[in-house]
Design brief:
This protein has 750 residues and is of the alpha+beta class. Strand 34 and strand 35 form a beta hairpin. The protein is elongated, with a radius of gyration of 37 Å.
């Protein structure tokens, strides 16, 4: 009986549970159906829009940044590919369903680099890294990688080196067994990126420009000043998500809206903003002059131990800056280099000392009572002008009295103060105003991105000492670029032009020239400029600059030696400013050596090294003629160049050069990527023919540009090491030599 009751109770509970689950299923089903109806029909459009928005997005196709060329046709800055090199050093068997997974040969599969491949090619990898490293040798990389690999659990994303060339990263990945160990993405980001590279290393670094340390994504130098031109316009297009991290250009699904769909319809739908690559610019820098300016300045800095210095060379007629060396001591490398944000010529301001006497005397020449052609005598060596600190004396005694000409030649502080006191003591502000009318105290707003700080003149009425200091180059601050701007104007007969660092902008196959900018058509009379030129020639021939006088061409200039810091009066800013050849001035140069024991005479030696180079290179100086900076070739076939522009190289690039020069291009195989020039004979016309290096042989790169030579070697599986600049003059191993892939080919350029 009791059993029947228990069975009935269980039956009722079972029925109750069945009814409960049945009701739950019905209610749940109704709720699901209601939700589906609500999502699909009531709020369907809203949810579809949300889903579409999640799956659609805008993606950017970065524009290629334009190149920066030198005025002598070399690439100074371009965009290259570099990588951060990470390795997956964890090597362990691959397990599947609890058992080791086997390959086709029945051998256990391993993740990471197999031990045999790792040991066999580790030396090769370390050699590759040492070749592109700025400060580490092969042993450094060998020890680091080996130590990490030896750990019980090595890292799967071990950073070996940052910023290695893409070609090196790619070559390591091609080594047998190493492909699986070279990491391609870190935290979802590719290790490969496009960066700006200075082809000639540190040469003219501040003029070309660095990444701005103060504001991310911006540049200094020419890179910053012409960023809008170089940058171009990124392409923006609609994309649809395929899988995580994979996006494809969006193809609209509703084809009914466009019954006859064309390619243009598709492009118009996908592209939001067309990509426009940046234009290139041609700088005013001439690599020949820049090289001699940097080397000469560095030699002087190494000899005298200054903290920094600059050497600037300017073309007088146009204001084009042909060389601008800005060297600062790098304590970590114990060398003088172009440090980031250290544009000495533009940003440093200092008391110029005696190079400013030229400005003071030019201003005084506006007074009709001052004539250098008369035998005017002024006090020399020592004079008491009265009042506190009113005693002025020269550093060495020469004569008791000097003419104005001798004051400049001997750089007499007393003589300059005597002139100032004699004619302007009671109208000191007048002298300051005359100087400001001559000298560009205001910012020049140069076409290089760099800080231009305000210059100043002390209150010359505050004390006699302030006025007297002003008369011989103190109590005022200037920058090197403003000082050379004045000297350039003086050499040009009073015509002041703005210093320019960009010569032209490349627009397609043409170059749009940046025209000279005249700041002041006449800062002084031509007669005054001629008299000052005579005085400056006397400084070099008979005065403080006589250590650089030259019998083959004349130099007109002024030495300057100013105390760098009043706390240590044995440290100076030594400078020399002037122009050459003085017989028919064409170039202006300024050299400043900061915070060193060097005087202006030592800075003059750097000036002389630069001027000698220019006179040797510029054949226009032989007849005194000034030709156009952009010479055009005549179309007369009898005056066409008989030699090829390039011995060997990329055919498309060579064709472009010929087109720019207006010359006829002749090729036996217009479809070939690489060509070499063949000299014509009586039976065979001259021109370019296809160049196809034999497989396994080192390509012959003689006569090629560095860019073409490196590209050709890499395409054949070789690595390139470039020394010097210009075109390939020699290579090791020589062309057509048999060498295995991965070998290093050293290219010497001249």
């Amino acid at each position: 009986m009791k059993k029947d009751k228990t069975e009935k109770k269980d039956t009722r509970m079972t029925r109750g549970m069945t009814v409960f689950y049945l009701l739950l299923t019905i209610v749940g089903g109704i709720a699901i159906v209601a939700s589906l109806i609500n999502i699909q029909w009531v709020h369907g459009d809203e949810w579809r829009a949300r889903g579409e928005k999640r799956e659609l997005g805008l993606r950017t196709d970065p524009a290629r940044r334009g190149n920066i060329y030198s005025s002598d046709g070399k690439i100074l800055a371009t965009t290259v590919t570099e990588c951060d090199f990470y390795l997956d050093l964890l090597n362990k068997p691959v397990v599947e369903n609890g058992k080791p997974k086997l390959n086709a040969k029945g051998q256990p599969l391993e993740s990471g680099i197999a031990d045999s491949c790792f040991a066999l090619y580790l030396d090769t990898v370390c050699e590759m890294l040492a070749e592109v490293s700025s400060g580490h040798d092969k042993r450094y990389y060998y020890d680091r990688i080996s130590a990490e690999r030896a750990k019980e659990t090595p890292r799967r994303c071990f950073l070996v080196e940052r910023r290695i060339p893409y070609s090196t990263w790619q070559a390591i990945g091609r080594l047998p067994g190493w492909k699986v160990g070279v990491v391609k993405q870190v935290d979802g980001r590719s290790v490969i990126r496009q960066v700006r590279a200075h082809i000639y290393g540190n040469m003219a670094g501040n003029t070309i420009g660095f990444n701005n340390s103060e504001k991310q994504g911006t540049f200094t130098g020419l890179e910053g000043a012409y960023d809008s031109i170089l940058r171009g316009q990124d392409g923006i297009f609609n994309c649809r998500r395929l899988t995580k991290g994979i996006w494809l250009p969006d193809e609209p699904r509703e084809r009914k809206e466009v019954p006859q769909r064309t390619d243009n319809d598709r492009i118009d739908t996908i592209v939001v903003q067309n990509k426009v690559d940046g234009m290139s610019i041609v700088s005013t820098i001439d690599t020949r002059y820049q090289d001699i300016a940097e080397n000469s300045l560095r030699k002087a800095l190494n000899q005298y131990g200054g903290t920094s210095g600059c050497a600037v060379l300017m073309e007088m007629e146009t204001g084009y800056v042909l060389a601008c060396a800005n060297l600062t001591i790098d304590t970590s490398r114990h060398d003088y280099v172009e440090l980031r944000d250290a544009n000495v010529a533009v940003s440093h301001v200092y008391e110029p000392g005696s190079t400013f006497k030229t400005i003071i005397l030019t201003a005084m020449m506006s007074d009709p009572d001052i004539k250098i052609d008369t035998a005017m005598k002024v006090k020399s060596f020592y004079k008491d002008f009265g009042g506190k600190n009113g005693v002025i004396k020269d550093s060495h005694k020469k004569k008791d009295s000097l003419s104005v000409k001798e004051v400049m030649e001997e750089s007499s502080n007393v003589g300059m103060c005597d002139l100032g006191w004699m004619y302007y003591n009671n109208r000191r502000n007048k002298l300051v105003d005359l100087v400001k009318n001559l000298f560009p105290y205001d910012k020049l707003h140069l076409d290089v991105q760099a800080d231009e700080y305000d210059t100043r003149v002390n209150n010359v009425n505050a004390s006699n000492r302030d006025f007297l200091n002003f008369c011989y180059g103190y109590s005022t601050t200037v920058s090197a670029m403003r000082l050379i701007t004045f000297y350039n104007a003086l050499g040009a007969g009073g015509r002041m032009v703005k210093p320019l660092f960009c010569r032209g902008i490349v627009e397609g196959d043409k170059v749009r020239e940046v025209k000279p900018i005249v700041l002041n058509p006449q800062i002084c009379s031509k007669e005054t400029a001629a008299m000052m030129k005579t005085l400056l020639e006397g400084v070099v021939e008979n005065g403080t600059g006589d250590n650089i006088k030259n019998n083959t061409y004349g130099i007109a200039g002024k030495t300057g030696t100013a105390v760098h810091s009043y706390r240590d009066k044995s440290r100076y800013n030594g400078s020399f400013a002037g122009f050459f050849p003085s017989e028919n001035p064409r170039y202006t140069c300024l050299v400043v050596i900061e915070n060193s024991p060097a005087y202006g005479r030592q800075a003059a030696l750097v000036f002389k090294a630069i001027s000698d180079c220019v006179v040797a290179v510029d054949k226009r100086l032989s007849d005194g003629a000034v030709k156009s900076a952009w010479p055009t070739l005549e179309a007369d076939s009898t005056k066409m160049l008989q030699q090829p522009v390039l011995e060997r190289g990329d055919q498309e690039e060579i064709m472009r050069v010929y087109k720019l020069l207006g010359q006829q291009y002749c090729s036996a195989d217009p479809t070939s990527e690489w060509v070499t020039y063949r000299t014509g004979t009586d039976s065979i016309p001259g021109g370019y023919v296809a160049y196809t290096p034999a497989e396994g042989n080192v390509p012959n790169c003689y006569g090629m540009t560095a860019k073409d030579a490196v590209a050709l070697l890499q395409s054949m599986g070789y690595k390139a090491k470039v020394v010097g600049y210009g075109k390939v003059y020699s290579q090791v191993p020589k062309g057509t030599t048999v060498a295995k892939r991965g070998s290093v080919v050293t290219l010497t350029l001249k």
